[in-house]
Structure formats: structure tokens, C-alpha cells
């Protein structure tokens, strides 16, 4: 279009066409710009929410400080509250610096873009600034803006120049200082939350810079590795990992056209004015969210509320069944407890201990008829020193120890057979069987018993309490040991003495219905006698010679079979079957 052979007029037209094309490419539609304004509005509302969430945690500690009792326990509690409030104050000071710095960048690019930042009028659609930054009263709340009032919404030169500078790989504008302070804030916040002295224990967290990673999963692994390398309170591990990860940005990124772009360059490159403001507000949102999370975590280390929890109720729990003479343990507590204010428990039976975890531990022996009822009181003081007392009860069903053994198939144990054995130890949650001259293997339901060579075997049933791990023998039972009974030979479906078909070709060995054993037998060989002739074969199928001979039979003639077979006990037996055809 602007080659060497073109006239000056053609070159000028070509140049104008290129300029127009570039302008069209850079033009951002009104709907897109309005969308950025809507995003910014929602982000500002979220900032207020995160601010108020953090303030609710902080104010709860302030209230706890002001209402703590004046006794020794109250003094210790007050000292603990003040310690964490001081930590929160440090966090708020640094958080306010970040909020103010970002607000200054916003005002700077707005003013240099020709926008009116002097007039302040709340909820006015034509005014840009609704509420100014209030360092004296609410230093954590960003400026309340109305981006719909911005005149040069699509202006991008000034945001790029002021925030990035000239090189998206190496920013020199205000964004570079913001980036460095974001890294410092991440380090400060996590180290403040993770470094403190709790009683005799000193917890320490030193953060290192993790800014280069490919995927978020890689960041998480590196953060977990860093936290693990420090001497961190186990209660703080999760929140430290969360805070560090949520405040992290990938410093260098690559596109299809360029590598090593700085995060500031990527975020604000060719960003319209309203989009740049929205991005800055999003950073403020991350900071306020992290602050709220940190303050909430510190607040959780000190209980608040009238009883250090919102609702109280007595709770007694332990075994619901037991045997006469057994020792049981019963735990009685409030539904929630304060580590600085242990409950006082009473009981009508047994001994009482205080393990220090907000519970009273009761130990007693079960006695009585069908059930035993334990009762008592549990009390705790509120912050004014007033005692709150509740009654509690707990009932234990009393079981009589007894045991039974049943063999569902029959009343003997058969050699070479997987005898099903079931036992029930009443009054115990676990049943244990052991045997003499019989091997017992646990299966899904009951046991499989395989007896030895003697004439009798014994099975002992025991009951086991899984809570106390105590096992009690409840009885020993004697069973006869016998070989498996012989099987019946069938010619097809015809048993010995029945009528069959001369066209049948198979022989079977199995138990008749009156023997309820599930046994599979193997037919080894057969010998058929018919019309004075004998035919022999292996397996359970008649060969061609036997089939041809049978086909000559006349109705009412008899044919006999002598069959050799064996069962799971590997004993070889012989059976006879005579049928009419």
C-alpha cells in the first residue's frame, strides 16, 4: 500500500488507512467499558464486606477485653486478649498503608486523565468520588468511587505510562512499587500470624519469596514445603498456607508473542482507565480478605461471647449397652468449651476426673437389672462470674453375658467340607470363635470350619468389647466329626430305581434334596451293563458305543451303572444307579 512505486497521494491514503485500522482495533465498545464499571462496583461492595468481616472479629475481642472478670482467671484471659489485639493492630497499620497506596495510584491516573476527583457527593450518579479515603476513622476502607461518572473510560495511555512505564517486562512506574509492597505485605502478614510465644512454646515463621511457578498446584506444594520447614504451631498451618497462596502472584508470564512479561505489565498493558481502576480495587479486595482471615484466626484463639460460645447445652456420652460387672467410661461436657474456663461436673455414681479438655471423665461399674441411669450436673461460669448449671442423664442398657453357637447346615462337622459356623456373643459388640481339632476362618458372615482327623472337635465362643478391648470366654461346645455321606448317582434326571430316557448321555453324582449340603462331586469313571454287555468310560459322559447300545433298548428294560467319583475331601467312592428306559 505504501511501496516505492506508489504516488505521494497513494502513500498518504495508505498511511491514513493504517491509522484508521489501528484506531478501530484499539477502540473498546461502550458495553465492555460499562462491564468494567459494574465489576468495579461489585468489587467495592466486596471490599466493604471483607472490611466489616474483619472488624466483627476485632470488635468481638475488644468486647471480650472490656467484659472480662477481675479475678485471677479473668486477668489471665485479659492478658491473652490484649496480646492478640496488639497483633491485630500491627496488621491493621500495614493493611491501611496498602489500601492508601493503591487509592493514591487510582487518584493519580484519574486526575492525569482529566477526571474530576475534587468533588465528593455520595450516591450521585454524575459524581466520580462518593466517599473520600478517611485515614483518621476508617483507614482500611478504600475510596468509594462511581466509575460510571468517568468521562474517558477507554483512555489507556496514562494508566499504562503511570503504572507500567515504557517496558512491560521491566516496569518502572508506580506499579513497580506496588508490586514490591505486595510482596512485603505477604511476608509481614504471614510472619505476624505465625510468629509468637504461647505459654512456654515459641512459634516462628519466616517467609521466603515464592514468585516464580508454572501452575497454582506448584505454588501450593512450595508453600507447604516452606511452612513445614518452619517451627509453626500446627493450629496455624492451614491459615498460613491460605494467606500466602492467596496473596501470591506469578511474577513472570509468557504469551505466544513474548516471554518474561512482568505481572504488572500483563495486568495493566493497554488496560482502559476503568479496567485499571477495577484491577487495583481487586488487589485491595485480596488484601482486605487476607486481613479478615488473619484477624478471624487470631480471634479464634480467644473465645468470645457470654459463655465463650453462642449456645450451651449439657452433653454426656458413653456406651449404650454393657454387661453386669463391666467398667465403663462416660464423658460429660458442654457442647462447646473454653480452654480458660473448665466446667464443673457432678455424678451420682463412680469416680470423677478432669483431663483438661473441657470434659469431666466419669468411671463407674455397671450394676442393676435391665438398665442403669447415671445423672449429675455440669456447671460453668460466664464472663461476669455467674455460674450456669445444667442437669444431665445417661442410660446404659444392661446385657446378660451369654453365648450360642449354631451350624446352619447340620449338627456335625464334616471332614473336607467348608462347614458354616455362626456364633453370637450376647452383650458384646464382637464375637470371637476359636477351635480345637477344627480350623476356623473368618468370612463375611460367621466362620468356615474344617475339622481334623479326630472323632470330635470343640468350638469356644468369646465376647469382646471393642471399647475396653476386653475379651471374655462364654462357653465351649463339642461337635461330632464325620466323613461326608455318599452321594447319589443320577442318569440324567433319573435317580436309582427311577425311569430314564434311552437317549440320555450324562451321569451325575450329587446329594439328594434331603441332604442339605452344598457339595460338588467329580465323576471319575463309569461302567454300564445292558443286555449282557459291558461298556466302560471316563468322566460323566457316555461314549458313542454306550449310546448306540442304549438305543437298542425296548421300553421297560433296565440298565445299570457303576460310577466312581470323589468330593472335596478327595475320598474316592463308588455309586450304583439302575434305571428303566
Task: Record the SSE blueprint.
Elements: H1 8-26, H2 30-67, H3 72-112, E1 129-131, E2 144-145, H4 157-164, H5 174-194, E3 196-198, E4 201-203, H6 216-229, H7 237-246, E5 252-253, E6 261-262, H8 263-268, H9 273-300, E7 314-317, E8 321-323, E9 327-334, E10 344-347, E11 351-353, E12 359-365, E13 371-381, E14 387-399, E15 402-406, E16 412-414, E17 419-426, E18 430-436, E19 438-442, E20 447-451, E21 456-465, E22 470-482, E23 488-491, E24 507-510, E25 522-530, E26 533-538, H10 544-550, E27 558-566, E28 572-580
Parallel strand pairs: 8-14, 16-22
Antiparallel strand pairs: 1-2, 3-4, 5-6, 7-9, 9-12, 10-13, 11-12, 13-14, 15-17, 17-20, 18-21, 19-20, 21-22, 23-24, 25-26, 25-27, 27-28
Helix pairs in contact: 2-3, 2-9, 3-4, 3-5, 3-9, 5-7, 6-7
Give a summary of the structure in a few sentences.
The protein contains 10 helices and 28 strands. By secondary structure, it is α+β, with helices and mostly antiparallel strands.
The main sheet orders its strands as: 7-9-12-11
- What is the SS-derived class? alpha+beta
Task: Report the average pLDDT across residues.
Answer: 85
Q: How many separate structural domains? A: 5
Which range best describes the helical content: under 10%, 10-25%, 25-40%, 40-55%, 55-70% or over 70%?
25-40%
Quote the beta fraction.
25-35%
Amino acid at each position: 500500500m505504501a511501496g516505492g512505486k506508489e504516488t505521494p497521494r497513494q502513500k498518504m491514503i495508505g498511511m491514513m488507512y493504517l491509522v484508521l485500522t489501528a484506531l478501530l482495533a484499539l477502540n473498546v465498545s461502550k458495553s465492555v467499558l460499562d462491564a468494567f464499571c459494574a465489576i468495579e462496583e461489585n468489587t467495592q461492595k466486596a471490599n466493604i464486606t471483607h472490611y466489616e468481616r474483619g472488624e466483627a472479629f476485632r470488635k468481638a475481642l475488644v468486647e471480650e477485653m472490656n467484659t472480662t472478670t477481675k479475678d485471677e482467671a479473668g486477668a489471665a484471659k485479659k492478658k491473652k486478649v490484649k496480646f492478640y489485639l496488639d497483633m491485630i493492630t500491627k496488621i491493621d497499620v500495614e493493611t491501611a498503608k496498602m489500601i492508601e497506596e493503591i487509592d493514591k495510584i487510582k487518584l493519580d491516573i484519574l486526575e492525569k486523565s482529566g477526571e474530576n476527583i475534587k468533588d465528593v457527593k455520595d450516591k450521585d450518579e454524575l459524581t466520580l468520588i462518593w466517599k473520600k479515603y478517611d485515614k483518621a476513622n476508617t483507614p482500611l476502607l478504600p475510596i468509594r468511587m462511581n466509575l460510571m461518572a468517568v468521562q474517558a473510560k477507554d483512555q489507556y495511555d496514562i494508566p499504562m505510562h503511570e503504572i507500567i512505564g515504557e517496558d512491560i517486562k521491566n516496569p518502572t512506574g508506580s506499579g513497580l512499587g506496588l508490586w514490591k509492597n505486595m510482596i512485603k505485605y505477604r511476608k509481614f502478614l504471614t510472619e505476624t500470624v505465625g510468629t509468637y510465644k504461647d505459654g512456654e512454646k515459641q512459634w516462628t515463621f519466616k517467609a521466603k519469596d515464592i514468585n516464580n511457578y508454572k501452575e497454582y498446584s506448584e505454588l501450593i506444594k512450595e508453600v507447604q514445603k516452606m511452612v513445614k520447614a518452619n517451627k509453626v504451631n500446627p493450629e496455624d498451618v492451614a491459615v498460613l498456607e491460605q494467606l500466602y497462596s492467596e496473596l501470591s502472584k506469578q511474577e513472570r508470564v509468557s504469551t505466544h508473542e513474548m516471554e518474561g512479561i512482568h505481572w504488572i505489565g500483563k495486568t495493566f498493558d493497554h488496560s482502559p482507565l476503568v479496567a485499571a481502576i477495577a484491577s487495583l480495587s481487586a488487589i485491595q479486595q485480596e488484601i482486605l480478605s487476607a486481613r479478615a482471615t488473619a484477624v478471624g484466626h487470631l480471634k479464634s484463639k480467644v473465645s468470645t461471647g457470654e459463655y465463650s460460645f453462642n449456645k450451651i447445652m449439657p452433653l454426656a456420652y458413653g456406651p449404650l449397652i454393657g454387661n453386669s460387672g463391666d467398667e465403663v467410661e462416660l464423658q460429660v461436657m458442654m457442647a462447646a468449651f473454653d480452654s480458660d474456663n473448665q466446667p464443673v461436673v457432678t455424678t451420682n455414681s463412680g469416680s470423677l476426673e478432669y483431663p483438661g479438655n473441657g470434659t469431666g471423665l466419669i468411671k463407674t461399674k455397671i450394676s442393676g437389672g435391665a438398665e442403669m441411669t447415671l445423672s449429675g450436673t455440669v456447671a460453668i461460669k460466664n464472663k461476669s462470674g455467674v455460674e450456669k448449671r445444667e442437669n444431665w442423664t445417661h442410660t446404659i442398657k444392661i446385657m446378660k453375658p451369654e453365648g450360642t453357637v449354631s451350624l446352619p447346615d447340620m449338627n456335625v462337622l464334616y471332614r473336607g467340607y467348608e462347614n458354616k459356623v455362626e456364633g453370637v456373643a450376647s452383650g458384646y459388640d464382637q464375637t470371637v470363635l476359636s477351635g480345637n481339632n477344627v480350623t476356623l476362618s473368618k468370612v463375611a458372615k460367621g466362620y468356615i470350619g474344617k475339622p481334623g482327623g479326630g472323632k470330635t472337635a470343640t468350638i469356644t465362643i468369646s465376647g469382646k468389647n471393642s471399647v475396653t478391648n476386653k475379651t471374655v470366654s462364654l462357653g465351649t461346645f463339642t461337635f461330632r466329626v464325620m466323613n461326608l455321606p455318599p452321594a447319589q448317582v443320577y442318569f440324567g434326571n433319573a435317580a436309582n430305581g427311577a425311569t430314564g430316557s434311552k437317549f440320555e448321555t450324562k451321569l451325575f453324582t450329587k446329594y439328594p434334596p434331603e441332604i442339605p449340603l452344598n457339595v460338588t462331586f467329580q465323576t471319575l469313571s463309569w461302567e454300564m451293563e445292558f443286555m449282557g454287555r459291558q461298556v466302560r468310560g471316563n468322566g460323566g459322559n457316555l461314549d458313542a458305543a454306550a449310546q448306540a447300545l442304549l438305543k437298542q433298548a425296548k421300553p421297560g428294560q433296565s440298565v445299570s451303572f457303576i460310577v466312581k467319583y470323589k468330593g472335596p475331601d478327595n475320598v474316592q467312592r463308588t455309586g450304583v444307579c439302575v434305571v428303566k428306559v
